[in-house]
Design a protein that fits this description.
The complex is a heterodimer.
Chain A: E1 5-7, E2 10-13, E3 19-24, E4 31-37, E5 44-50, E6 65-69, E7 75-79, E8 88-95, E9 105-106, E10 110-114
Chain B: E1 3-7, E2 10-14, E3 19-26, E4 30-38, E5 44-49, E6 56-58, E7 61-66, E8 71-76, E9 85-93, E10 102-105, E11 109-114
Parallel strand pairs in B: 2-11
Antiparallel strand pairs in B: 1-3, 3-8, 4-5, 4-9, 6-7, 7-8, 9-10, 9-11
Classes of the chains: A mainly beta, B mainly beta.
Chain lengths: 115, 115
């Protein structure tokens, strides 16, 4: 596809369960970002992948959160033992590193609701 | 600590009004500043600014960057109800170490335009 694709678009889960959110970036984009957005709020940085470099995990809020990026393309964000405060929209974005400055392109997000 | 601050956090105007949204930042190794508009789902890209004093314009929207004073403004003239959205400012910078090309967002400005 032409844009960033995220799945599922909505996820309702019970407190304590694990969830996996998927992001398929734009083909050829080497940088991939995950952000979290609570209702009416700005975007909170979670994790960032750039090519084969070690990811920047500085935004992950706890060790229940982890992310992988396989083959430099698809990424999966995993939240273990979900809590109600994890409820938010999780946005994935990708960008090219050519040119040096290039904008982020966002997916439509996954709305996670923890009951 | 690297940060991006937007003001005001919310703004209510009537159609035809002109609005100015502000974004200030403190980051090391600045690359560029980006503005996004977010309605229901994914933020959509508006402008990327890399040089001071050069106005970017698209229809009724315009933006300018001041790299000495570390801020940017986004102007919207003759506002319409379709301009109602969250406007997000983000700064792309090199965070150092193994992390580079990091993008940090401000809290966003919620703009509501009444008929």
């Amino acid at each position: 596809g032409a844009g960033v694709s995220q799945s599922p678009s909505n996820k309702v889960t019970e407190k304590g369960k694990d969830v996996e959110l998927r992001c398929d970036p734009i083909s050829g984009h080497t940088a991939l970002y995950w952000y979290r957005q609570s209702l009416g709020q700005g975007l909170e940085f979670l994790i960032y992948f750039q090519g084969n470099s070690a990811p920047d995990k500085s935004g992950l809020p706890s060790d229940r959160f982890s992310a992988e990026r396989t083959g430099g393309s698809v990424s999966t964000l995993t939240i273990q033992r979900t809590q109600q405060e994890d409820s938010a929209v999780y946005l994935c974005a990708s960008r090219s590193d050519r040119p040096y400055n290039s904008p982020l392109h966002f997916g439509n997000g996954t709305r996670l609701t923890v009951t | 600590e690297d940060k991006v601050v937007q003001s005001p956090l919310s703004l209510v105007v009537h159609e035809g009004d002109t609005v100015t949204l502000n974004c200030s930042y403190e980051v090391t190794n600045f690359r560029s500043l980006l503005w996004y508009k977010q309605e229901k789902k994914a933020p959509t890209f508006l402008f990327m600014l890399t040089s001071s004093g050069i106005e970017k314009k698209s229809g009724r929207l315009s933006s300018i960057l001041d790299k000495k004073e570390l801020f940017s403004i986004l102007n919207i003239t003759a506002t319409q109800t379709g301009d109602s959205a969250i406007y997000l400012c983000a700064v792309l910078y090199d965070a150092g170490g193994t992390s580079y090309g990091k993008l940090t967002f401000g809290q966003g400005t919620i703009l509501t335009v009444h008929p």
